[in-house]
Amino acid sequence: MGTLSRRALAAGTFVVAGALTLTACGGGGTTAASPAAPAATGASSAAPSAQNTLAAMVPDAIKSDGKLIVGVDASYPPNESVDPASQKIVGWDVELVEAIAGKLGLTAEFQNAGFDTIIPGLGSGKYELGSSSFTDNKEREKVVDFVTYYSAGTAWAALKGNPKAVNPDDACGKKIGVQQGTVQVDDIKAKSEACTKAGKPAIDQVVRKQQTEVNADLVSGKIDGMLADSPIVGYAVKQTGDKLEIIGQAYDTAPYGFAIGKNSGTFKDAWLAGLKEVMADGTYKSILDKWGVGDGAITDPVINGAQG
Questions:
Q1: Number of domains in the chain
Q2: What are phi and psi of 219, to 5 degrees?
Q3: Assigned domain for 231 exists
Q4: Residue 23 has what pLDDT?
Q5: What's the mean pLDDT when you consider all of the chain?
């Protein structure tokens, strides 16, 4: 997928004029099974006290009811998923949104949705923020604005010991799993085409609706390997009791961004300011460290920071 990460779609998948067409990425609903949230340490997920100067930056249309309606596809642990015990949407993405919203005097209200419906929902006013591990890329910037907050790449995993000898640089003939709608779909397709051009067998591509399904396929041996965003693969290895292992090195690092509708006025500036406050007071680092994803932390968030 070029230099994009998990939630990026290839150029051309957006129809800017008229309806937006996106590839689906995970189903809605709130019953999807996912690992339970790690025990709270460090910063609480409770929203910090509102800062008057930041709250004043929020457009009246958003702050009038005190709520921030957030679209999220909760099928991507540890970023965003449904806790099977409480049935609540949890994850470090979720806690970070709650913390920033609190700085703006808002209470985040998460709505589980299909990944492909979130950006169109921002355009229609259904959602006021999209937080679903979106990669900030040039195609998406045509229809929404982004506030960058994390850096992720693509990583591969196999069963412990890599019994099928999967090589990310030459997976020809292997059965490889990936979640639909993600940048990794295009990545594995391109790798498979390179195999056939070289006279080798194509990659058997197994595309599933949710990443948790891909993880389960790999643990059960239905596939030989998988690829996904680096924090997701790392968390899968941890949550499966080391039944899996990361193979090779992460690549195509790119920024995650909170998605904000183009018609939201100064809200993107308010959200950026709130994120900077959460970084300054240590909450950002505490949340990422709590969930074990601190390696992707950034220090200089920006509005629309797509690479290339």
A1: 1
A2: -60, -40
A3: yes
A4: 30
A5: 85
Residue 198 located in a structural domain: yes
Sign of the dihedral through C-alpha 264, 265, 266, 269: positive
Sheet of 75-76, strands arranged across: 75-76, 80-82, 89-90
Query: Do 1 and 8 contact (CB within 8 A), yes or no?
Result: yes
181: left (phi over 0), alpha (psi -120 to 50) or beta: left
Name the strand (E) or helix (H) holding 69: strand 67-72
**pLDDT confidence tier of residue 183, bands split at 50, 70 and 90:** confident
> Residue 290 and residue 283: Cα distance in Å, rounded?
10
This prediction's pTM = 0.74
Task: List CB contacts of 100: < 8 A, sequence separation 6 or more.
Answer: 271, 274, 275, 277, 278
Tokens matching residue 77? 């642990």
Residue pair 226/178 in contact by the 8 Å Cβ criterion? yes
Cis check: omega of the bond before 301, within 30 degrees of 0:
no
Sheet containing 244-261, strands listed edge to edge, beginning at the edge strand earlier in sequence? 107-112, 67-72, 129-130, 244-261, 144-159, 225-229, 175-179, 204-208
Residues of the domain holding 168: 153-252
Predicted pLDDT of residue 45: 45
Taking only the tens place, the pLDDT of each residue in 37-55 is 554 433 334 444 446 889 9
CB count, 10 Å around CB of 71? Answer: 25
| Chain segment 85-100, per-residue pLDDT in tens | 999 999 999 999 999 9
CA separation for the pair 15, 20 (Å, rounded): 5
In a domain, 187, yes or no: yes
Backbone φ and ψ of 284, nearest 5°: -55, -50
For residue 85, being part of any structural domain is answered with no
Specify the CATH number for the domain of residue 205.
Answer: 3.40.190.10
